[in-house]
Amino acid sequence: MSDIYNKHYSDDGFWQTIKRFAKKAGASVLRIAFQLYYLARSPATPLWVKTVAFGALGYFILPIDVIPDVLPGVGFTDDVSVMTTALLTVGQYVTDEIKSIANTKVYEWTGM
Asked: Which stretch of DSSP H or E encloses residue 51?
């Protein structure tokens, strides 16, 4: 599945989605997204792991998905499922440094 959404990923699209939905998505969604983002950006990350991460992030930023992100309470359910599955698949590559950077970013965007 990651290959399908990989082509939809862009850094600009990622940050635009974060800007648009940070408060609505909440800290737990952002934490997963930032962990995948910084994992994919790390030079030490294997290519197949980057592909999985960018695929999940591509789904996250895709404006049309199974459950529209604008729906209160359920809008990010599908995004969380896709990103959580990706994180479970590649989680062994998420270093303490990546977790720390992700947590700092979550705090910057949400105060949590």
From this structure: helix 47-61
